[in-house]
Amino acid sequence: MNFQIATLLGQDGLTNGAIYALLALSILLVFTVTRILLIPLGEFVTFGALTMAAMQMGKTPKLEWLLLGLVLIDCALDVYQQIKRHIDRNKMKMIALKLGYAVIIIALLNNLSLSEIPMIAQIALTLCLIVPIGPIIYRLFFQPLADAPALVLLIVSIALHVTMVGVGLLLFGPEGARTQPFSDTGFRLGAVMLKSQTLWVILVSIFLIVALFIAFERTLYGKALRATAVNRMGARLQGISPIFAGKATFALAAFIGSASGILIAPITTLYYDSGFIISLKGFVGAIIGGLVSYPIAAIGAVAVGMIEAFSIFWASNYKEIIVFTLIIPFLIWRSMNSHNVEDDE
Amino acid sequence: MTSKKVISALLLSSSLLTPLANADIKIGVVSSTTGPIALVGIPQKNTIPLLPTSAGGEKITYISLDDGSDPTATVKAFKKLIDEEHVDAIIGPSGSGNAMGVIQFAAESGTPMLAPVGTAAVVLPMTKQKKWVFKTTQNDDLIAKALVEQMKATGIKTIGLIGTADPYGENWAKVMKDLTQKADIQIVANEQFQRQDTSMTGQGLKILMANPDAVLIAAPGSSSVMPQTTLKDQGYSGKIYQTHGAALDPFLRLGGKAVEGTILAASSMLVLDEVPDSPSKEIATKYIADYKKLYGETPATFGGNVLDAGLLLENAIPSALKSGKPGSAEFRSALRDALEKTKEMPATQGVYNMTAENHSGFDERGRVLITVKDGKWTLLK
Fold it and tell me: Which residue ranges run through the membrane (chain A) (predicted)?
């Protein structure tokens, strides 16, 4: 091992670590606000990557039908509730807006020549397609049992993960895919060749993390989410809707997930079922942060990426074992140091 | 894991509900159309409508089950086909590991099993149980021999191996170790990876440090692309060899410029236009045309392996019918004997010559050396 190899591995670990950090933050965010361990987060990663890949091959991503289907179910439920109580004009307008949004996105996807539009437009379309799926999933599967024990929420979350992997196979097929890099240039850092995509990943991740930080510290909505995370009942008494908080965190998670997928798709081949293992490593990061601390979770996730890169080099066949064994000492250390707070069981 | 089982159980039970026609000869087909090896299983399942519908004057019905790539589900599917459906033969499963687990059940019930799987371990070394198994793919060593000969001819002295950490990659590492020793080629690096790995920088660096004349990548399906693009990005300039596992069109699409000049050995299905006319070529051309008409895409080689299994059965059934009625143990046993006597039978993958010892039955007519030129498969001359 010399300096050049260490730099290359370090760069590799940092790239993966940045993605794991983003995922760790979304897992943490969703967990603190809603008590849901968002296992399907990895599916948003693969959906994002595979949708981009489909667009670049000039195919209309079939994910549009999932969006349409979910929006239709969501609106049908809304209408049913309206009829059951009383008809509220504003609510009806919202329903029309939702339907209109889905129709516009699908019209755009079918009428643009997707492989030729600039990449930034492809990214925007992909995000517009996937992000709304997050809040709808919350509304359909978690909102009805928002008060259920954390274990029930976890089970639903696992069921959702399994279903989404199946849907992924149906929509994208079993083939792996990768996308074109954002730009083709590479540059030298000493004796090491850096690919520009690596920098993109690291810069966008840092940008997103900083943006999240500012949003949570400075904006009213961010503060509302933080308040919910600190004390759900207290936040509710202050007039913060838990439904809104849940939907907002799911939208954020879907956004971060699919953005991560778009970022790494040019570097690696992703399959319909690759997401789980990626988000699991983010989860290890979140565990290192004790499922409470954002900065420690982010640092932990970067550490996971680093350890992974170096363990591939030293013992490629034991890599996963090394990474996931990491969780045990942290769990022991955490459980020895924390007072057992079981607040909602 | 449990979650995967739940899904496969659901899929299994849904296939239970399919009404079955009352026909004379019943053949079970087990493929992995969901789960990690769906890539292999989907073209196999798609091939079922193209299989022969009658043989020796008797109608053949096919009963298709999905095992979700899960070896436990494969066992369940086999038991169901054997105990409840009383099938006369089984084609499948898709995965090497899945196949290893069901050999004993096929043997105990005396049901011939035609496995379209990669690993030679299902038929070698021949045992009392394995005599019920026939394999419709080229044995790894047949492909490997072609590659090693090519390496020797081009003066390659050292090679590096990158393989998947599964039976496919491991068997290749084993086969290559034996063959390279004989050919006086040294393996200077041997690295492993998982299909879902998002980065291969470490393995690539290890190979670069050893600096071999050539690298062989042994991975099934599109996972064979990443090691190669990584090596190219890191500036490796030696020759890169691939196995028949890479012989799929997505390999070209995903690899782009990085896979230009790759050398691999596979069945002639990829370069049909360039090989001289033969009965195999005719059958393969027809199969590809029929498949295209049905699904609008060219089939992966894996589908051809299942078609061959059907053709082998079609060829063996007439003589087996003389010894017993379909559905009886005598018929199944005679079917096995007839399959073992297959001689000079052309099919999509090559020409089959089964013997009591060789249940794969290919010779060098079953593989050609192929390279990638201008983004297309080309016969290596």
Answer: 20-45, 95-113, 119-138, 150-172, 198-216, 250-271, 283-306, 318-336
The arithmetic mean of pLDDT across residues A23-33, rounded, is: 92
Domain segments of chain B: what residues?
A: 2-138+283-363, 140-266
pLDDT of residue B45: 92
**Residue B45 sits at the chain A interface (C-beta within 8 Å):** no
Inter-chain touch A312–B194, beta carbons under 8 Å: no
pLDDT given for residue A216 in this prediction: 87
The Cα of A315 is separated from the nearest Cα of chain B by a number of Å equal to 9
Q: Which residue of A has its CA nearest to B198?
A: A268
**Cβ atoms of A276 and A165 closer than 8 Å:** yes
The average pLDDT across A44-62 equals 91
Q: What is the pLDDT of residues A236-254, one digit of tens each?
A: 898 888 888 999 999 999 9
Is domain B2-138+283-363 in CATH 3.40.50.20, yes or no?
no
Q: How far apart are CA A33 and CA A47, in angstroms?
A: 24
Instruction: For domain B140-266, give the CATH superfamily.
Output: Response regulator (3.40.50.2300)
Q: What is the ipTM of this complex?
A: 0.71
Whether A301 is in a domain gets the answer yes
CA nearest B164 in A: which residue?
A: A317
Instruction: State the best of B199, B228, B251, B295 to mutate against chain A, taking most chain A CBs within 10 Å.
Output: B199
Contact A159 B3 (CB under 8 A): yes
